[in-house]
Model the fold of this input.
Amino acid sequence: MRIIFVLLLSFTVTLAAQNKLKTTANENGSVSTTVKESSENLKVDFVGILYGDRALYRVDYRNYSKYGYLDESGDVVIEARFSAAGDFSEGLAKVQGGGFSLGESVFRWGYIDSNGALVIGHGYDAAGDFSEGLAYVGIKSGWFFNRKMRFGYIDKSGRLQIECQFDHAGYFTEGVAPVRKGKKRGYINPAGDFVIEPRFDYANCFSDSLAAVRLDNSFGFIDHSGQFVIEPKFSQVRDFSEGRALVEVNSLWGFIDRSGELVIPAVYSWALSFDDGYARVWKNDEPLWIDLTGNEVSGDKPR
Done:
């Protein structure tokens, strides 16, 4: 996965006819970013990570933010015309607005394909990315101050596969999705049936066959049967990745293995999850890399 880097400063952007974004370093160490798309001067204040072959970018247009997409070469392939947008996932991206029809709501969500064509109309008050062929969507109902959001799931054709019946919804991973009904959360399958009954105060998506859940203000991890593999005893946790999960102990962060044993001591002020065998950590405000055994390396990420 490639990343297009842009410092989040407030870049002056000249838009002209080549549909291109270029980033160059100036003598004073600042970065100039140029997108060529029209004759107006705009500001690019964000360029995201490349997902598939599209990366989200944002411009400041007459004191409003507009979103569009670049390809892996930095070419503008979908011009910045959306009032809000998400990353591409499974070939589709959620967007608000875009000028597809007269009278469309700039506050409702639809989905575009990688060419910028609207393939699922702006019919939703909330929307998530597609995962395992489904995306959660939210629709408000009721009158004025009594309007309530209910969540269900659509497929990539826009068909509602699971009726809007939940008070909150998450992504499908490993065949199940966390949802909230009332005050408690559980997990449903793609048919919309509960496979783990709602009994948790918080429930995250499954990762590495385990999911983080909260009971009585403490986090632990369950398996697909809904049973605790790691009992709830942590104040904060992150998902498992590469057999390790971040946990907070006495306001510092370390890593546990799948048995719940603290295999990398909680000595870090902040940390990110493992990716390709290494995790980014901060110790006394110094950024470091660690491997899966906890060996620390300064400087660039080891290869």
Observations:
- The first strand starts at residue 11 and ends at 14.
- The chain is about 0% helix and 55% strand.
